[in-house]
Amino acid sequence: MNLPNQLTVSRFVLTLAFLIAIFSSFPFHETVALVFFVAASITDWMDGAIARKHKLVTDFGKLMDPLADKILVCSAFIAFVGEHLMPAWMVTIIVARELAITGLRLVAANKNVVLAAEGFGKHKTISQIVAIIAILVSSSYQQWDVVGTTVFGFVIAGKPWVEWFTPGSIWVAVILTFISGWLYLWRNRNIYLSDM
């Protein structure tokens, strides 16, 4: 197994570690969950960059890399509902979009059509990762003593700036997720409408 594929597999392990940490009650578990999520996000960037640079692209990587990404992101958002860190209706939009696009890609693959990722989808992914990290930071920065309160806790308009930034990042992620999903389904509607 080459290095990019090892990184992809490690993302599944890091996702499990993240979930164990976020649902645990040991001291600093939110900070530990943040570390696991950031590490998993870095592997997402690294596996693709290494595979392209060293021509190590494989069928396994093409299948498992996007699957690992979706499992990581959807697991985080679903966990946030359980921890009351995000409304369920927002998470439903995000998870439904990911499932719908995965289904569309499967239908397309069955017809020997490859659907490439679009620019809007990449912005959506970045916005989702930023929102997840913001939620984790917002729930853990007070555990970091003076570093946390200095960097993330300085007050703007009556509350720490991270508490303004986090809801905004969540709204951006939800809106971009919805728009990117709708555009993707609309632009590729001939793939599924032909079977109706």
What does this structure look like?
The protein is mostly helical and 196 residues long. It has one domain (3-193): CDP-alcohol phosphotransferase transmembrane (TM) domain (Four Helix Bundle (Hemerythrin (Met), subunit A)). It has eight helices and two strands. The protein has helices at residues 3-22, 29-53, 59-82, 88-110, 119-140, 145-151, 161-187, 189-193; strands at residues 155-156, 159-160. The chain has a two-stranded antiparallel sheet. Strand 1 and strand 2 (159-160) form a beta hairpin. Helix 3 (59-82) runs antiparallel to helix 4 (88-110). The longest helix is centred in the last third of the chain and has 27 residues, at 161-187. It is globular and about 55 Å long. The mean pLDDT is 90.
How many discrete structural domains? 1
User: What is the assigned CATH homologous superfamily?
Assistant: CDP-alcohol phosphotransferase transmembrane (TM) domain
What's the SSE pattern?
HHHHHHEEHH
Q: How much of the polypeptide forms β-strand, as a percent range?
A: under 5%
**Number of alpha- plus pi-helical segments:** 8
Question: How would you summarize this macromolecular structure in one to three sentences?
Answer:
The chain has 196 residues and is mostly helical. The chain has helices spanning 3-22, 29-53, 59-82, 88-110, 119-140, 145-151, 161-187, 189-193; strands at residues 155-156, 159-160.
